[in-house]
Design goal:
MetI-like fold, 11 helices, mainly alpha, elongated
Length: 275
């Protein structure tokens, strides 16, 4: 019982924090006190709790709180867009691979295996370096790097669902393949896809921050958590707040996303209910 209470409070807290981050990102122009790209050099490297600068300022005199707020926008847009697009494409490919089988399945799965053999970060950095730094290109990078996870998951689910009696009955009465996939199979693979997508949001936040930190993602003066961290790494001994606060934003957001993802897994995965 105590564990359940702690778990419920953790979920409520996580949902509350994520909601706050979402509203912060959506209402950034209304709630942020300064322009994220403009600063005063006379106010450079002010410490936290300074007058008019709650989290301090960066080397260009820009308000750090404002840049963290605007950085939440970038992280939310990139993570949600990349998860949605990778999920849609990977689910479609997995449906086709698992449903038709044979040479179609073999070709698709060999391609998936080849891509999965490359470390995710190295593959993402390579694609980002080829495409160039921009918001659109970093989304494309994460989609191309991540769709294979959904394809493999959905393909495995489809192979099991395809043998169910109600699907075999649909084949027997002569329903077209596209209708069987959309009405009999697709709804039954959505639960694991939703769980995977919820857990992948946190990973995409970290991936975007890592790519921007290394200089292949969102470029200054646009505020993103990764490039804020990158700008502050030369000042870690003299201006610790430049790395601590954006780092905390990444850690807290990712942790809350993972807590919510675990909750969705517990609710939507019927295999866990049998244990």
């Amino acid at each position: 019982m105590f564990k359940t209470i702690i778990g419920n409070w953790l979920i409520i807290l996580s949902v509350g924090v994520l909601t706050a981050f979402v509203f912060m990102a959506l209402l950034a122009p209304l709630i942020s006190p300064y322009d994220p790209a403009v600063g005063e050099l006379r106010d450079r490297l002010l410490p936290p709790l300074s007058k008019e600068h709650v989290l301090g300022t960066d080397p260009m005199g820009r308000d750090l709180l404002t840049r963290v707020i605007y950085g939440a926008r970038i992280s939310m847009v990139v993570s949600l867009a990349s998860v949605l697009l990778a999920g849609l494409f990977g689910t479609l490919v997995g449906l086709i691979s698992g449903f038709y089988g044979g040479w179609t399945d073999s070709v698709i799965m060999r391609f998936v295996d080849v891509q999965l053999s490359f470390p995710f970060v190295i593959l993402a950095l390579t694609i980002a370096a080829i495409l160039g730094p921009s918001l659109q290109n970093i989304i494309i990078t994460l989609v191309v790097s991540n769709w294979v996870i959904y394809a493999r998951l959905v393909r495995g689910e489809v192979l099991g669902i395809k043998e169910k009696q109600y699907v075999q009955a649909a084949f027997t009465v002569g329903l077209p393949n596209w209708r069987i996939m959309l009405t009999n199979i697709f709804p039954n693979v959505m639960a694991p896809v939703i769980v995977l997508a919820s857990l992948e949001i946190g990973r995409m936040i970290i991936a975007e921050a890592a790519i921007s930190f290394l200089g292949f993602g969102i470029q200054p003066p646009t505020a993103a958590w990764g490039n804020i961290l990158s700008e502050g790494r030369d000042y870690m001994s003299t201006a610790w707040w430049l790395t601590v606060f954006p780092g905390l934003a990444i850690v807290i957001t990712t942790l809350c996303v993972n807590v919510v993802g675990d909750m969705l897994r517990d609710k939507l995965d019927p295999r866990l209910k049998l244990k």
